[in-house]
Amino acid sequence: MGKPTFPDATLECIDQTLESAYSCFIEYSKKKANQRADFLRRIADNLEKHCNSIIETAEQETSLGLVRLEGECSRTIDQIRLFATLAEKEKWKEISTEAAEPNRTPIPKPEMYKANHPIGPVVVIGACNFPLAISVVGTDTTSALAVGCPVVVKSHPRHAQTCELLADLVNQAKRESNMPDGCFHLVHGESHGVSTALVSHPRTACVAFTGSLQGGKALYKVANARPSPIPFHAEMGSLNPVFGLPFALKEKGDKLISAYIDAVNLFAGQMCTKPGALIILEESFDEIFEQSLLDSVLKNESLPMLNSDVLQNYEKTSLDLAQSLEIIAQSEIQSNNTKGKIRIFKTMAKDFLTRPELKAEAFGPASIVIIAREFTEMLAVAKSMEGSLTASMLVSENDKPEASVLFPLLESKVGRILWNGFPPGVMPGIATHHGGPWPATTDSRYTSIGIQGYKRFIRPICKQGFSDLSGVS
Amino acid sequence: MGKPTFPDATLECIDQTLESAYSCFIEYSKKKANQRADFLRRIADNLEKHCNSIIETAEQETSLGLVRLEGECSRTIDQIRLFATLAEKEKWKEISTEAAEPNRTPIPKPEMYKANHPIGPVVVIGACNFPLAISVVGTDTTSALAVGCPVVVKSHPRHAQTCELLADLVNQAKRESNMPDGCFHLVHGESHGVSTALVSHPRTACVAFTGSLQGGKALYKVANARPSPIPFHAEMGSLNPVFGLPFALKEKGDKLISAYIDAVNLFAGQMCTKPGALIILEESFDEIFEQSLLDSVLKNESLPMLNSDVLQNYEKTSLDLAQSLEIIAQSEIQSNNTKGKIRIFKTMAKDFLTRPELKAEAFGPASIVIIAREFTEMLAVAKSMEGSLTASMLVSENDKPEASVLFPLLESKVGRILWNGFPPGVMPGIATHHGGPWPATTDSRYTSIGIQGYKRFIRPICKQGFSDLSGVS
After folding, report:
1. What is the DSSP string of A246-284?
2. Separation of alpha carbons B326 and B323, rounded Å
3. Which residue of A has its CA nearest to B426?
4. Are the Cβ atoms of B417 and A462 closer than 8 angstroms?
5. CA end-to-end span of chain B, whole Å?
6. Of chain B's two ends, which shows fewer C-beta atoms within 10 Å, N or C?
7. Is residue B117 within 8 Å of residue B461, measured between CB atoms?
8. pLDDT tens, residue by residue, A201-233
9. Coil, helix or strand at residue B306
10. Is B75 exposed, middle or buried (0-12, 13-18, 19+ CB in 10 A)?
């Protein structure tokens, strides 16, 4: 029996899907808090019940492996239940009121009531690297559903069968909890045309995208070129620089370098917060550093890339880098392998500063060690950086004077700063933020991971003078 | 002595201005809460002290008249003081924390701390119709200054001298409170090139614009076409439809029609929330209605337009409408006048539905009465509406069944719904919202009026593992 295939949605189908989402928007948005919470809990329950078959399919479609997929699945279930609670408690409405003042002069003041409302149908275009957590039932979808937005998900062509199974679970929950059919749809699409049609459709009110800088930029343009532009949220490329200050490296270099390489190679570097650059001073770049780096790379097992496309792309971008940069450490693996070879490059800061192409993310286990002759040059590198999701600082007590100069500069460029730590390694909580200035995301004021993700999908509406209103709103 | 003139800022001057703003961003953003509050209070105090000369100048540059300008000035002073309190209390930071869990398995959890931070240098391009409240020291500027963003204001060419005087007051406050020079600048610009250069400058982090749909759209494109796009907030055109249901018009038509015409003619219709359309059923459109409308128009004094440009533009747009629509009531004023003639047009709903150009805002005291043959046609008009800042419903007890169908539809299209009331007539408070779906604004999730205006200018940053950090952040 052949693998099931999912033909691209036609323009007609996309139009019907968005019209269906739009036509149920008011009905779905007016569902009671506990009804939407029930819907979300059923999705979580269904996922829990069918997790084995979902994981099995995801394992066939990606190379992420059982352990990682199990972890991702349980994280996804937890996340859906968090959004069920959000839907139930309705704190997201942030209601504020002003009492009427009928005797105010020169004119009476009517009662004012403001609350957040769902923005309308949301299109979700998920990532290749998280087939469960940033996919059909990820934060984008479930946060939008929680606040009353119908959702249309575009399946990822590299794990379309997983998407299909996940959509079945949502559709089942939809029926069980008596939600309107239009509140959730999945469409398939290998071609860019499907995404373009979804983003440009007049009924789409907001888009959440996770993927490459190239893809994000192209769709951002589509969203802005609409007759009625809409918010387009993309989480795209991020260099995630790590600044290693000299005393820290002197005192605990071995440990830090090992942790750096672990972070570079986590899930074969296929993480949006993989550290793409380590910036150090020339004085730190000695034989011990080099040996430490090499040891760490060699002790790190090479891991499989998500699929052959991703591997091919990684080989291309990292070998392009190798044309002009020295490789100072790399994995010893066989050729013709599906695994991503760790590749650590070296460049002098003065060269890095004149070559903007080095600031682009290489999706995979590659990273560049950037060597600054002195601290002012390290600062110049920091100043030249584009926006990132994260930046890290490796600091000892004696580094603090320099750290205090570097810190506010990095703060102005990223969404998360790590002190003596490496991304990611942290579960999303109330105090995390997964967003950053362009090109990390299209809007640094929002997060695509964690409970605050729903803020993309709400807008305030004020009702004035509704005190005499019963049975209408 | 001739009127002072203000030549357009050169590209070099704009570059220096933005570099100056950017270079002080970190210093200004790290000022203590009470220091920024003091800065803002000094601006308010200076404005209070010099309000006579400011109002006198604004009176010469616009036709708004003393009473309106006095009211606007005191509202502006109050607003600045509100933002001083915001700066002082720092609630806008919305700090959230997660404690470290050093013994967590498989890996320890670091401390997480999240707070809102200023987004960076903000460019403010103010409106023609509020030379004080939506201008140099309006909500855009003072809310951005309150949260630590340096601000560059482009003066409005029709009241450039007023802008210059207001900027002097801010600069004086800047010196008195020892703020960095770069935290506030005014540049002049008659040509679109100045705005384009400000919006496209790489150091600009966010833009707040109030003006025409045409101008807003053009600059929105500029902001999105930057190598690093930025949030561009524009408050543009809005039709602000009023839906008059039949029992309401039957029971209190006279009073409602009179209030409608008052709202159309408030400040000669030069308000972003002027009702541009009144939608009624054919059964309501009888002789009594027509007479009532005519009486209201005739008893309303025609008011001066802001300046000759605005008058000319109003004459053009409203006379274009008169080419194809019947005028059912208009003011009886002399020709060659600077005053805006109230013009009330009439169209059948079925014609309105096929003519998208009728949905555009006419800036001035013009409005269209749209006549629907039945309620379903009224609904079709509501469905066809673009986004607006406001919509109003005129409703009696017996209209409630229809109102309850109309209400959620209008809710999905606007930022504020008024029940038996007309915009504006309400002071901005915590429960108001001045924003709406495109083309009313570029992002319906934000407001440009009221205390929440600062939300455009902040973004969350998470600090991870900073518990051992002293003297750095």
Report:
1. HHHHHHHHHHHHHHHHHHHHGGGG-STT---EEEEEGGG
2. 8
3. A109
4. yes
5. 54
6. N
7. yes
8. 999 999 999 999 999 999 999 999 999 999 999
9. coil
10. middle
Tell me if residue A374 is catalytic. no
Q: For residue B366, what are the β-bridge partners?
A: B343
CATH class name, domain A11-236+441-468: alpha beta
Whether residue A65 lies within 8 A of chain B, CB to CB, comes out as no
Which value does ipTM take for this structure? 0.95
pLDDT attached to residue B3 = 65
Instruction: Choose among A217, A153, A215: nearest CA to A14.
Output: A153
Residues of chain A neighbouring B411 (CB-CB closer than 8 A): 117, 461, 473
What is the rounded distance in angstroms from the CA atom of residue A434 to the CA atom of residue A412? 15
Cα distance between residue A418 and residue A416, in whole Å: 7
Query: What is the mean predicted confidence (pLDDT) over B298-306?
Result: 91
Check pLDDT > 70 for residue B99. yes
How far off is chain B from A160, nearest CA to CA, in Å?
Answer: 32
- Residue in A398, A397, A432 with CA at minimum distance from that of residue A417: A432
Residue B37 makes CB contacts below 8 A (sequence gap 6+) with B84, B85, B87, B88, B146
Closest CA–CA distance from residue B439 to any residue of chain A (Å): 7
Task: Determine whether B235 is an active site residue.
Answer: yes
List every span in chain B annotated with CATH 3.40.605.10: 11-236+441-468
Q: Which tokens go with A350?
A: 């003065």
A364-423: pLDDT as tens digits: 999 999 999 999 999 999 999 999 999 999 999 999 999 999 999 999 999 999 999 998
% chain B with pLDDT above 70: 97
Please check the confidence at residue A4 and state whether its pLDDT lies above 90.
Answer: no
- What number of residues does chain B have? 473
What is residue B284's DSSP assignment? G
Instruction: Please identify which of the residues B90, B163, B272, B361 carries the catalytic annotation.
Output: B272
The pLDDT assigned to B425 comes to 65
Strand order in the sheet with A366-372: A326-330, A343-348, A366-372, A277-281, A241-244, A388-394, A414-419, B458-464, B112-118, B96-98
- Assess whether pLDDT exceeds 60 at residue B470: no
- Residue B1 banded pLDDT, cuts 50, 70, 90: very low
The Cα-based distances of B256 to B179, B225, B394, B405 in angstroms read 51, 46, 8, 22
Strands (E), A191-330: 206-210, 232-235, 241-244, 277-281, 303-304, 326-330
Per the CB < 8 Å rule, is A400 touching B442?
A: no
End-to-end CA distance of chain A: 54
- The boundaries of every CATH 3.40.309.10 domain in chain A are 241-419
Q: Among residues B274, B279, B289, B273, which one has the least CA distance to residue B242?
A: B279
Residue owning tokens 């708004």? B64
> Stretch B434-442: mean pLDDT, rounded?
96
Distances (CA, A) of A388 to A123, A239, A350, A367, B258: 24, 6, 21, 15, 56
What is residue A468's predicted lDDT score, i.e. its pLDDT? 58
- How many angstroms separate the Cα of A295 from the Cα of each of A132, A289, A330, A332, B286? 34, 10, 10, 12, 90
Bridge partners of residue B272, in order along the sequence: none
- What average pLDDT does chain A have? 93
Residue A429 forms contact with B (CB below 8 Å)? yes
Query: Which of the four pLDDT bands, split at 50, 70 and 90, describes residue A425?
Result: low
3-state secondary structure of A425: coil
- The whole-angstrom distance between A256's CA and the closest CA on chain B is 15
CATH superfamily, region A241-419? Aldehyde Dehydrogenase; Chain A, domain 2 (3.40.309.10)
Which of helix, strand or coil describes residue A343?
strand
Give the mutation candidate from B419, B420, B430, B438 for the A interface (greatest A CB count, under 10 A). Answer: B419
